[in-house]
């Protein structure tokens, strides 16, 4: 591998392959991540999309992408990627298109599709060693339908279907599904978590992934102002805090071998991340739910204890 | 030309092979599996230059097939019954993409209760999705229809996916003599697929399957699909004429049997029509002027051809091998709807039979003809009938007893 990683955001390409003016919400963390993913991927892409917020990126007669786009359905974007990838391979092999007309096939899904409904088709595509990229913008709930509980929703988050009330003061009662480990069990060539606040780390990961043929999977933690009930101007700050508190671990796995790409020198307490978000306000007001906050801190401590060992 | 003994499934596979299909995503389901196994074997042996992928579900399979078609290759896939329903969402989606996918459905009844044997509720559930539908009675017709289906699907006036339907077991596993056309002749009939409207390649970015906001845009695209499907009536006839010129076999939108001077017409679909034809012949021997109209092209619905075929007849009976729960026979409704504004129209009777592969015996056909004659005599059209024999009823009573339900 002869890639020189970039060191600073000044080294990021100026060119964008995703143009502004989309229908996404102000402060969408997923969109910021996607913009940087596409800086790394270039313009020779075909994005195969699953139902979610980002389905509203291409609305007839507009598209914000320099590359191509195919919206499929909620559960089967990886299968769509299979069809497109195979078709391109067939066309090149049979001499019907030239090699330089080839495209990178990129699945783009939210966490609802990635963690829940699309898991079977994702597993199938990884298992078949499909040569594709997979980007999950994880805002930790079904965002496009107004923020309901998904397999990606963290413990104690308030959502439309885990409302906080007299009989349930906690919100979501189970913790987030570990999609990274589900994917890793397939031993794909490249797998990483990314953050819209760590663009250099994100960019370098995509460039590294480019060296591998097969599934290249990315989960981006994606602050969602309307769902998280936060100010749009705080999205980058929250994305940073999730890394600094150790809640969102930045890592990669090459053929299943895990390496953390950023380990905070000193972890900030989780409440610094939780406190500013409407979806967690019930942990602080009207009464501070000490047990629940501690439990979240313990979960984070437990994770990093495993990493250090 | 020599004929080979082929099952309906093998005939389907031959159609795919001769169409020089590039891509086959697949998923096994009884009674379709023989089609994909045959194709997989040919690819493995080098008899077919195509790519075959076993997917993780029918939903994924139809997605992959449609996406490959949207990327510019000739794609094929096949399913049946539960599988078709599992992938149902993608039927509407792929049709909306306006890509020329050809898909075989091997008809089988729908759960619950779960069964393997045929009826048409699976394929008729897909009636409104935008796929055109060709229904087959014989193995030869299966092979030929796949070639015809690609021609129609890829026609620029249409650009819609097409279903070729055959009955599970009765046709899928029945061997009949089939003439396998020469590849050179097929190439004359079906040229290579070179899409102008849907593909993916660098330098020519294209957004497909994009969302729309607002009813006017949605209505526009949906109605475009409908108009394209309706173009199918004329295109189908042109294509079939060309097919006849090259291969000598003639297919129309419907298939009439002893229809010309018939007074009592039985209307059916798919392989059970063979039983219906035998019954017509027998009725004729008894002096009843019987005839049979088999619906071959179901979408687009050849309303005028059907009306012309039954015009001036005394009575027609639709034998639906399906049931719309809470309404009755689906084809009966469709034909009744088509007839409503006709001034001269026969009485229209409704029979439901052959559900879940239940045999339709000569006695049951006799009952249909007798009922038609009686209705014509009295002018009273009876309530829809379920065909079910005395012996079958007794057997049902026996098994219910075993189940402890009597």
Structure description:
By secondary structure, chain A is an alpha/beta fold. Chain A has one domain (9-308): Rossmann fold (3-Layer(aba) Sandwich), CATH 3.40.50. Helix content of chain A is 33%, strand content 15%. Chain A contains ten helices and eight strands. An eight-stranded mixed β-sheet of chain A has the order 2-1-3-4-6-5-7-8, sandwiched between helices. The longest helix of chain A has 19 residues, at 290-308. The mean pLDDT of chain A is 97. Chain B is 43% helix and 17% strand. The longest helix of chain B has 33 residues, at 215-247. Chain B is of the alpha/beta class and 406 residues long. Chain B has 14 helices and 16 strands. Chain B has helices at residues 8-18, 33-45, 58-70, 81-86, 88-96, 121-125, 139-154, 183-189, 215-247, 273-285, 303-310, 330-339, 362-378, 390-402, and strands at residues 3-6, 23-26, 51-54, 76-79, 102-107, 132-135, 162-167, 176-179, 207-208, 254-257, 264-269, 290-295, 297-299, 315-320, 347-352, 385-386. Chain B has two domains: 3-247, Thiamin diphosphate (ThDP)-binding fold, Pyr/PP domains (Rossmann fold), CATH 3.40.50; 254-393, Rossmann fold, CATH 3.40.50. Chain A binds chain B through residues 43-44, 46, 48, 55-56, 58-60, 63, 65-73, 75-84, 86-91, 94, 96-97, 100-103, 120-121, 123-124, 127-128, and chain B through 22-23, 25, 49-51, 53, 55-57, 59-61, 63-73, 75, 89-90, 93, 200-203, 205-213, 217. Strand 2 of chain A pairs parallel with strand 9 of chain B, so a sheet runs across the interface.
**What would the CATH topology of the largest domain in chain B be?**
Rossmann fold
Count of separate structural domains of chain B: 2
Give the SSE string of chain B.
EHEHEHEHHEHEHEEHEHEEHEEHEHEHEH
**Biggest sheet statistics of chain A:** 8 strands, mixed
Please work out how many helical segments of chain A DSSP would assign.
Answer: 10
- How is the largest sheet of chain B built, in terms of strand order? 10-12-11-14-15-16
């Amino acid at each position: 591998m002869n890639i020189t990683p970039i060191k600073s955001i000044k080294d990021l390409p100026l060119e964008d392959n995703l143009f502004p003016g989309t229908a996404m919400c102000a402060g969408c963390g997923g969109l910021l991540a996607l913009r940087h993913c596409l800086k790394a991927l270039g313009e020779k892409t075909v994005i195969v999309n699953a139902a979610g917020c980002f389905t509203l990126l291409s609305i007839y007669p507009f598209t914000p992408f320099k590359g191509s786009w195919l919206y499929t359905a909620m559960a089967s974007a990886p299968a769509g990627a299979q069809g497109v990838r195979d078709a391109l391979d067939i066309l090149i092999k049979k001499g019907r298109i030239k090699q330089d007309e080839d495209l990178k096939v990129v699945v783009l899904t939210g966490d609802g599709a990635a963690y829940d409904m699309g898991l079977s088709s994702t597993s199938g595509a990884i298992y078949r060693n499909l040569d594709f990229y997979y980007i999950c913008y994880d805002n930790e709930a079904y965002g496009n339908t107004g923020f309901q509980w998904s397999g990606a929703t963290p413990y104690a988050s308030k959502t439309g279907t885990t409302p906080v009330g007299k009989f349930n003061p906690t919100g979501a009662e189970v913790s987030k599904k570990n999609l990274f480990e589900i994917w890793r069990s397939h031993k794909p060539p490249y797998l990483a978590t990314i953050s819209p606040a760590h663009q250099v780390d994100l960019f370098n990961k995509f460039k590294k992934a480019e060296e591998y043929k097969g599934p290249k999977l990315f989960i981006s933690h994606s602050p969602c102002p309307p769902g998280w009930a936060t100010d749009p101007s705080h999205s980058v700050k929250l994305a940073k805090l999730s890394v600094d508190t150790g809640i969102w671990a930045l890592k990669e796995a090459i053929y299943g071998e895990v390496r953390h790409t950023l380990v905070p020198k000193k972890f900030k307490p989780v409440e610094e991340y939780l406190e500013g978000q409407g979806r967690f306000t019930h942990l602080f007001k009207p009464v501070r739910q000490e047990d629940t906050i501690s439990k979240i801190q313990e979960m984070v401590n437990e994770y990093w204890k495993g990493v250090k060992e | 030309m020599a004929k080979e003994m082929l099952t309906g499934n093998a005939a389907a596979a031959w159609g795919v092979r001769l169409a020089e299909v590039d891509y086959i995503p697949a998923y096994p389901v009884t009674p379709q599996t023989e089609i994909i196994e045959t194709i997989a074997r040919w690819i493995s042996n080098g008899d077919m230059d195509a790519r075959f992928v076993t997917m993780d579900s029918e939903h994924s399979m139809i997605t992959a097939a449609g996406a490959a078609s949207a990327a510019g290759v000739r794609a094929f896939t096949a399913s049946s019954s539960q599988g078709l329903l599992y992938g149902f969402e993608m039927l509407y989606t792929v049709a909306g993409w306006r890509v020329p996918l050809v898909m075989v459905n091997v008809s089988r009844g729908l759960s619950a209760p779960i069964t393997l044997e045929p009826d048409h509720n699976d394929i008729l559930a897909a009636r409104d999705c935008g796929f055109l539908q060709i229904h087959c009675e014989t193995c030869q017709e299966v092979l030929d229809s796949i070639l015809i289906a690609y021609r129609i699907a890829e026609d620029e006036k249409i650009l819609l996916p097409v279903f070729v339907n055959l009955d599970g077991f009765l046709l899928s596993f029945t061997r009949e003599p089939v003439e396998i056309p020469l590849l050179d002749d097929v190439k004359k009939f079906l040229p290579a697929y070179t899409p102008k409207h849907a593909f993916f390649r660098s330098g020519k970015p294209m957004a497909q399957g994009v969302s729309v906001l607002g009813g006017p845009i949605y209505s526009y695209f949906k109605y475009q699909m409908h108009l394209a499907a309706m173009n199918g009536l004329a295109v189908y006839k042109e294509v079939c004429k060309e097919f006849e010129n090259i291969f000598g076999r003639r297919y129309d939108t419907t298939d009439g049997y002893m229809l010309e001077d018939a007074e009592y017409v039985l209307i059916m679909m798919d392989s059970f029509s063979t039983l219906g034809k035998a019954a017509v012949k027998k009725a004729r021997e008894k002096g009843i002027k019987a005839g049979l109209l088999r619906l071959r092209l179901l979408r687009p619905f050849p309303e005028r051809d059907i009306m012309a075929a039954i015009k001036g007849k005394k009575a027609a009976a639709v034998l639906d091998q399906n049931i719309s729960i809470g309404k009755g026979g689906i084809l009966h409704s469709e034909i009744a709807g088509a007839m409503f504004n006709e001034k001269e129209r026969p009485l229209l009777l409704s029979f439901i039979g052959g559900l879940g592969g239940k045999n339709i015996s000569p006695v049951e056909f006799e009952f249909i003809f007798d009922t038609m004659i009686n209705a014509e005599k009295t002018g009273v059209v009876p309530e829809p009938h379920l065909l079910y024999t005395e012996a079958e009823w007794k057997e049902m009573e026996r098994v219910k007893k075993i189940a402890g339900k009597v």
